[in-house]
């Protein structure tokens, strides 16, 4: 399950448009290190090859703050709780979300190697489907 971030509550093609932008700019998988309460964790990010690592890091670190709602989001992402649970804290993360998608800034991310591998495989299949679809 994944959570997408963007200005629209319902998909009006924005997810597809974001993926197409990522694929046409050559998708890459990067490990972005973020600081969470003095601890550094690796976040696995999938984005266009020319994405801004600094802006991505800033967004991810903002989302680790409790109940963070930023940039006009209509609901919390619960990324803060997922990170806290990942770090072994006392936070209980009961959501099923393991992948997040910022459709406004064209990047997806997850916090475990296992989920990153699954996401990579899924994105490869999606990219192949997009490239096979006639324009």
How would you sum up this structure in a few lines?
With 135 residues, this protein is an alpha+beta fold. It contains four helices and five strands. It is 37% helix and 24% strand.
List the helices and strands and how they pair.
Blueprint: E1 2-5, H1 14-24, E2 27-36, E3 39-48, H2 53-63, H3 79-86, E4 99-102, E5 107-110, H4 113-132
Parallel strand pairs: 1-4
Antiparallel strand pairs: 2-3, 3-5, 4-5
Structure description:
The structure is a single chain. This protein has four helices and five strands. The protein has one domain (2-130). The relative contact order is 0.22. The protein has a five-stranded mixed sheet with strand order 1-4-5-3-2, with helices on both faces. The longest helix is centred in the C-terminal third of the chain and has 20 residues, at 113-132. Strand 4 (99-102) and strand 5 (107-110) form a beta hairpin. It has 135 residues and is α+β, with helices and mostly antiparallel strands. 37% of the residues lie in helices and 24% in strands. The protein is globular. The model has no long low-confidence stretch (mean pLDDT 82).
What are the defining features of this structure?
single chain, alpha+beta, 37% helix
Q: Biggest sheet, in brief?
A: 5 strands, mixed
Mean pLDDT: 82
Strand content: 15-25%
Rg over CA atoms: 15 Å
Distance between the termini: 29 Å
Enumerate how many helices there are, as a single number.
4
Number of strands: 5
Percent range of helical residues: 25-40%
| Residue windows where pLDDT falls under 50 for at least 5 positions | none
**Overall geometry:** globular
Q: In terms of structural class, how would the helical and strand content be classed?
A: alpha+beta
Strand order of the largest sheet: 1-4-5-3-2
What is the H/E order?
EHEEHHEEH
Domains (count)? 1
């Amino acid at each position: 399950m994944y959570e997408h971030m963007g200005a629209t509550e319902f998909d009006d093609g924005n997810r597809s448009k974001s993926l197409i932008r990522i694929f046409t700019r050559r998708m890459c998988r990067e490990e972005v290190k973020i600081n969470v309460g003095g601890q550094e964790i690796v976040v696995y990010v999938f984005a266009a090859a020319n994405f801004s690592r600094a802006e991505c890091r800033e967004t991810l670190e903002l989302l680790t703050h409790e109940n963070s709602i930023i940039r006009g989001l209509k609901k919390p992402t619960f990324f803060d709780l997922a990170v806290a649970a990942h770090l072994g804290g006392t936070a209980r993360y009961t959501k099923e979300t393991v992948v997040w998608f910022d459709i406004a800034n064209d990047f997806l991310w997850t916090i475990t190697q296992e989920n990153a591998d699954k996401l990579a495989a899924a994105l490869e299949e999606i990219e192949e489907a997009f490239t096979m679809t006639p324009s």
